């Protein structure tokens, strides 16, 4: 499409990037068929094509209104439209730029500002979240049903992080909320990689990946979280200072993975971090990518495992995994090698409604998407649901009595009987 960006942004790096993205869109409308909010609302302005038109108006200097902001707020940033788009429009990046401009020109109401402020200050702060979460768990029995269900009970963990050192070493992101909500995920990851002769280590000062703040109208806070992680990891991955190289930064939450893989781009205007961020992005791997490269070794281990009652699983592929990182079918293949029966899932490309803080900020739409997703996931009566992102896991669990777990946990249970003492 033709563009004529306003002077306030035309010659900035963001403006040049937005202009290139806008020009790549041919308004074909293929994206409408895969947009969750358009499917629910039937409003062109709640579709990628409509939102692109709104952002074009804003970037060309037309008045910015709360209506424009509302339509952009309703977007899940699921990026299913990018998977469908024949022109390769980088809609997610355009949305970040558009939201940043609108935030500077439209003042939200006090209630909205307060909710977003609290989310930005509590969720990315691992230690503050831990304290508040423990208080919530303590008073959980006193809460009404809906609120009580939103706070998971304390998880009993009898498994420990492996202590054996291997020649191969990888880093893992702890993140912000996952260590409290589901601490077994990274432990299970360390145990599985230990079986494959890989040591998994953490960096104490690394925390939130930056995605939560970046998508809550506080993009600078998000970038600062990214810089902090880079600083925390750099001393461990700097080959000049370490004789034992770090092979990868393992991500067990796909919502974090898609962001860390984008550090190089998001910080490419920062001369102090550009090079480091690019190297970090190159090292970032979803755990499914790591295990896909170890398929032969994994299959050998599985042959040695004791007989296991392999339950029937339904896998929910998070949007950040299948659309953001473009990783499709990999987890399913690994679970198939492990002997699980996987259910087919109708409309597997559609979002579950979690989408970071979306379930809090847009509860009505989020619940509609959750209801539809659970209908499709449970259609073939699975024994258990598995996914690859902590946000999706908690959101799905809030709507079903079935167990919802990270897929790496069920793989760890199978490999638990394998003896690797000979390594």
Topology:
Elements: H1 7-10, H2 13-24, H3 36-41, H4 48-59, H5 66-73, H6 80-84, H7 91-105, H8 110-122, H9 126-139, H10 145-150, E1 168-172, H11 178-181, H12 184-195, E2 198-202, H13 211-214, H14 219-237, E3 246-251, H15 254-260, H16 263-266, H17 274-283, E4 284-286, H18 287-292, H19 295-304, E5 312-316, H20 319-324, H21 330-337, E6 341-342, H22 358-361, H23 363-377, E7 384-387, H24 390-397, E8 404-406, H25 407-415
Parallel strand pairs: 1-2, 1-3, 3-4, 5-6, 5-7, 7-8
Helix pairs in contact: 2-7, 4-7, 5-7, 12-25
Q: What does it look like?
A:
Helix 4 packs across helix 7. This protein has a 4-stranded parallel sheet with strand order 2-1-3-4. By secondary structure, it is an alpha/beta fold. The chain contains 25 helices and 8 strands. Among the domains are: 7-105, Alpha-helical ferredoxin (Fumarate Reductase Iron-sulfur Protein, Chain B, domain 2), CATH 1.10.1060; 303-415, Rossmann fold, CATH 3.40.50.1860. Helix 24 links the parallel strand 7 and strand 8. It has helices spanning 7-10, 13-24, 36-41, 48-59, 66-73, 80-84, 91-105, 110-122, 126-139, 145-150, 178-181, 184-195, 211-214, 219-237, 254-260, 263-266, 274-283, 287-292, 295-304, 319-324, 330-337, 358-361, 363-377, 390-397, 407-415, and strands spanning 168-172, 198-202, 246-251, 284-286, 312-316, 341-342, 384-387, 404-406.
